[in-house]
Amino acid sequence: MIWQQIVNGISVGSIYALMATGYALIYSLLGFSNWAHGDIAMVGAYLGFMFIASMNLPWWAALILALLGAGLLSVISERLAYRKIRKNNSPTMFLMIAAMGLSVALQNFILVTVGSKFKTYPQVLPVKAINIGGVYIGLLDLISFLASVIVIIFLYYLIERTKFGLAVKAAAANMQVASLLGINVDRYISLVFLLAGSLAGLSGVFLGMKYTVYPQLGNFALKAFIASVFGGLGSVPGAIVGALFIGLMEVFVAGYISAGLRDLFTFSLLVAVLVIRPTGLFGKDIQDKA
Amino acid sequence: MAGYYEGLLILVGINIIAVIGVSILTGFTRLFSFGNGGFMAIGAYTGAILSTKLHTPLAVSILGGMLMAGFVAFLLGKITLGLKGDYFLIATLGFGESVRVIIENLQGVTGGARGYSGIPMKTDLFVIVISVALAIFIAWNILHSKIGRNFMAIREQEIAADAIGIDTAKYKNIAFVISAMFAAWAGVLFAHYFTFIVPIMFNLAKSSEMTITVVIGGLGSLTGSIVATTLLTLLPELARAAAEYRMLAYGVAVVLIITLRPSGLMGYKEFSARAIYYWVRDLFSRKAVKSGEEVSS
Questions:
Q1: Number of helical H runs and strand E runs in chain B
Q2: A40/A45 Cα distance (integer angstroms)
Q3: Are the Cβ atoms of A88 and B83 closer than 8 angstroms?
Q4: Is residue A288 included in any domain, yes or no?
């Protein structure tokens, strides 16, 4: 029983982790929490649904296309809104408000174009559970877990071992100096948004396959966001640890205490972390650059 | 049909009171909060329970709701207002959602997720007109007192405000408590108009809708916020076909305003009869002024 819960927790946590790393990447660069991130995941879930259900593409092709679509949407949102605000030298708070507006707009765009009905992905993967020593692991859970692990290793390689990662880290440390040193900061910001958006799209498709697709799917991202706060805003490893922790905590609270209290625990954790240690587990600098 | 328009005005009035609170907090103190929906819920449930269980008159229910929300805001402000910028916003978001979840789980007292019904219908047009007038009067006087000027000093430069001796922690908490009390006031009126409340009415979407209204009206304009509330409440009702696109348009409007004109429709300006008089006079006398300039040169 306890092992089953742990497996379930890790499976949810790995989907959260995909989203939480996106929050962390964008926060580390621009210093704001991208509220629209979850809604980009939601659009990704709808794209995946459309490709599978209406166009009858194989699931892996739909997955890749949805991932690219969400990444592209993320880049466009940065180009149209956030870049202008950065160039205006407005307070970073304004980035957050713009992101909030974008989130409302995306949710309602889907609402008026597709409708509020819950959609269920067609059965693309056989519902098989693999039995390992009495613990059942769903095929979908296994695939999403493996995909998350691969993506996270890829991300680690990208940030720690390539020129891209070096440039992003330089820009995160000091955008002006980085740009003086000849790094095209705007381009790297676009690339980070592409990366974060694609990860969100991937998690959106997995969420859609696991549950259903609906316009408020982005609210799942609230949990991922809390995970990234818990791990320390702007820290990628922190986001992953935080996501796994929240996934496990939710499953255990729902399993052993009460399913209704699950969200209360998560939100209380958020407030408690902010009050006791606002930097989270791995966060460093929280001073607002006034 | 008269009832329909009356209902519309009541809705506008309730929204105005809630938005005034957000305007004081966000427009004048530059603290962004996603918890005002939560304070509205606290007010609505406290007021509703007072009215149904203790049969208190509406004024007492309103005061009770406001005190309850103010007290919670005071405690929450004490522990979270030390946080910077978006960390504070995140903490209020967590609070707002927690309030909703707590209400959903307190089956015995609040009726849980199925809602609380049987609240006496006490909010009519008369009550709303008095409430809105009183709310605007109170807010206007707060903003034009020492407290209000301290809020604005914090908005412009918190570090500088600290340096000239303003107790920023205290005044931020005052702004937070005041905004929570306005939200609760609106919440009690809301409960006594619809006579039935469910926790989902006061969720994150409600909080962000109020913040959106203030951003559109102008971050730093009380009258701008009031005008924006009136327009944003009435427009979807008057143009029913467009109602579906309401929230989509809100979202797009916020992105456009924050990127192109971050100060909102009104900026820091207030509507006033005198300003309109000057504007009209200038409009008519522009020709005269121009010809006068030519003579003098």
A1: 13, 2
A2: 9
A3: no
A4: no
Cα(B80)–Cα(B20) distance, integer angstroms: 22
- Given CA atoms B54, B56, B61, B67 in this order, what sign does their dihedral have? negative
ipTM greater than cut 0.90: no
Decide if A130 is inside a domain. Answer: no
Q: In sequence order, what DSSP letters do the residues of A213-258 get, joined into one string?
A: B-GGGGGHHHHHHHHHHHH-TT-HHHHHHHHHHHHHHHHHIIIII-
Helix, strand, or coil here: A138?
strand
In chain B, the domains with their CATH numbers are 2-296 (1.10.3470)
The answer on pLDDT for A136 being more than 90 is no
Q: Does the residue A131 lie in any domain?
A: no
Per-residue pLDDT reduced to its tens digit, A11-58 = 888 888 888 888 888 888 888 888 888 899 999 999 998 888 888 888
Q: Rounded to the nearest 10 degrees, what angle do helices A220-231 and A2-30 cross at? A: 70
**Phi, psi (deg, nearest 5) at residue A103:** -65, -45
Which residues partner with A130 through β-bridges? A137
Max Cα distance, chain B (Å):
81
Of B104, B158, B262, the CB nearest to A260: B104
Do B86 and A96 lie within an 8 Å CB cutoff?
yes
pLDDT band, residue B25 (cuts 50/70/90): very high
pLDDT tens by residue, B41-73: 999 999 999 999 998 899 999 999 999 999 999
Q: Which of A70, A71, A9 is nearest to A45 (CA)?
A: A70
The token pair at A93 is: 């708070």
What CA–CA distance (Å, rounded) separates B246 from B239? 10
Q: Quote the number of domains for chain A.
A: 1
Q: Which residues in chain B are contacts of A107 at CB distance < 8 A?
A: 247, 251
Give the distance from residue A171's alpha carbon to the nearest chain B alpha carbon, in angstroms.
21
**Do A107 and B255 lie within an 8 Å CB cutoff?**
no
Give the minimum alpha-carbon distance from B130 to chain A in angstroms, rounded to a whole number. 33
Q: Which of B51, B104, B96 has its CA nearest to residue B69?
A: B96
Is residue A179 exposed (0-12), middle (13-18) or buried (19+ Cβ within 10 Å)?
middle
Query: A284 lies in a domain?
Result: no
Q: Which domain holds residue A181?
A: 2-121+137-276
- H and E: helices and strands count for chain A: 12, 2
Residue (of B243, B247, B237) closest to B4 by Cα position: B237
The CATH number for A269's domain is 1.10.3470.10
Under an 8 A CB cutoff, do B258 and A271 touch? no
Model confidence, pTM: 0.82
Cα angle B237, B238, B243; round to 5 = 50
What is the spatial distance between Cα A93 and Cα A79, in angstroms, rounded to a whole number? 18
The number of CA neighbours under 13 Å toward the Cβ of A205 is 33
d(CA A33, CA B211): 17
